[in-house]
Every structure is written in C-alpha cells, then in structure tokens.
Amino acid sequence: MVFVFSNIIRIGNIIVIGPIMAILIVQCMISAVTGFLVFRIIYLWRGLLREAWNVWLLYVLILGFSPWVSIPYSDAMGLIFPALILYLYVSARKGKYFCVKVFLLAAVSVFAYKIKPQLLILFIALLIVLILKLIKGGIAEKKAVIKGIGCGIGGIVFMMWAVSVVTGSVDIATDDEAVFSPAHYIMMGLNPVTNGGYLEEDVYFSHVQPEDERVKANLQVAHERIEEYGASGMSEHLLKKMLTNYADGTWAWGAEGGFYSKVFEDKNQWISPFLKSIYYYDGSRYGFFLSYSQTMWMLLLAGCFLTFLFRGKKIEGVVLVMMLSVVGLSLFEMIFEARARYLYCYVPIYILLAYTGLENLWGKLQRRKRNV
Description:
Layout: H1 2-14, H2 19-46, H3 49-63, H4 74-77, H5 80-92, H6 98-115, H7 120-136, H8 139-169, H9 182-188, H10 200-208, H11 214-246, H12 271-279, H13 286-309, H14 317-335, H15 347-371
Helix pairs in contact: 1-2, 2-3, 2-5, 3-15, 5-6, 6-8, 7-8, 7-14, 9-11, 13-15, 14-15
C-alpha cells in the first residue's frame, strides 16, 4: 500500500493536483473499471446484453453513490480485485489464452492479498471449485484443471517475487517486534465491548506484550472470553457480530476513524454544501442517504438469499464460486475483527450473486404466469 500510494502521490505532484486528490482520482477510476468488469462478467457468462446493462445499472445505483471511494484507504483500492479475479475466471473458461488468463488470475490474487487479506477468499473459493472438478469432472475437465494449476503456480511464484522486489525498494524501516499475529484479531473479535469490533484496549494489550509471548497472551485472553460467554453467550455474541457486519447498508460510513474531525470550508456555493448535506451525519439529506443505502443493501441481500434458495440440484461453477466466497467472507468476519466496511470490496460479488437470484425469481414468475 505504501508503494502504491507513494507512486500515485509522486505522479500527482508532477501534474500538480495534490496527494489526496491524486489517490481519489485513481480510486474513482478503479470504481469505474470495476463497473465495466461487472458488465463484462455477466455478458461473458450469460450472453445477454440486457442482463449486462441491468447489472451495470445496479452497480451504479449501489456503489456509484457510495462515499467510500473518497477515503484513501485499502477498501476503495481493493474494490477492483474480486471483480477482476472473477472476470479472469469466467473469461478463462472460454478457452482462448487459457494459460495466460489463469497465470494473471493467480498473480492478481496474490497482489490483492497484499492490499487486503480477505481478498484472497475468492481465490480460495476458486481452488475449492477446481478441486471438486478434479474429483468429479470428466477427463477433459481434469486435464484443464491440471493445466490451470500449473499456470496458476507460475503466476503465484512470479507475483510473490515481484512483491518482494517492490517492498524491498520502499525505503522504510519496519519493526518486526511490533507485528500482530492473527491471534490478536481473534482475541479482538471476541471482545464484548464493541461486539467484536476494533478495541483500542486490545491493541494496547497486544502492544505491551513481549514479541515471543504475544501470541500466547492473545490466545489466553481469547480462551478466557469464550469461557466467560458460555454456549448461549457465545451464540449471542456471534449474532451481534453478524449484525455489525451486515446490518449497515452504508458499510459503517462515518462510524470510525477521524470522520468530521475537521470540517473544511465550502469550495463553492452549490456542489460542496449539497454533498455535505447528503454525506455528513448532521446534513439535512443524511437521513435520505441512510434510507436509500439501507434499502439497496437489503435488496442485494434478499437477491443473494434467492440465489441460495433457487440454486437447483447442480450449481453452476461461477455461482458456486460466488456463494463460497460470500460464505468464506462471512466466516472470516465472524472469526476475526468485525467491521461492515470489510464487505465493501466484495460488493460487486454480492451484486452479481443477487442479480442471479432476482433473475431466477423473475424466470419462475414468468413460467408460472405462462402455465396459468
């Protein structure tokens, strides 16, 4: 992230647009390209231009109005990766340039993991589907999977080497003794104060532990918290974490960090106050923004549920990959730190999955209408 941001800032300084604006322009471009990828995924997969435009419109209505693109952070930078990985998978199934696309898919997955760890979940879902095909598929499918694994390993090795070269070129001294392990985030995910969310006291606790005892101390606290909860208490805690993750259609906009710590003067007399009235918590239109965001998010979740409901006996590979990635992301959030904005990067997947369910429902209604 330091390497990516520092080079964007360097280019921004050259063309005199300022460091923050340079990053935001790139994030807006990423959001636009992600919308295009969502369009292409549906078109390549289902072959109907009507459906591609419908999905793109859904993307614009949901992510096109999200203010998260204006925050220079890994969430907005990571938005493109799930869509890009899925696009490469759908495109590779067509057979043309198969090895190149699988190589890129694996390389992009490794790079995505370095931007935000949970972005690797989609790649893991792909591996699960490929393993199932290797076990149950025909001879042709098994040959394609074996060939893909070889190309994928090449992509992984290449990107790991490239990342090591890139991070080595960044002139920053890191403190290895300050590293927090996954055990810290498991411990924090069990805290009752913020329902498994970020807790500064837990960060301080891990910080003061000696490096060689930190993991043991984190696991000890995690064990104590599980014992204190008991079976019913743990169930209630996990329910609260699920609501923390999924009950906010704005993906926790304004709920953390230094939001509104400094309110800048309006740069003009129309667009600045208008946008502030929508996206600032004390704005006159903020309630509309909340209601709109929540309605669209509930629509997406309902569509995802319909996809699970109308999945049929044999689930198509693309749908299964998306289902597994959503389940995997939910489990990730339940085990580690809970945060609604951690879902933001995967919203393109939720859109594709939800559209599949809504389209299946529409098809069933049309068939029933014809039968009647």
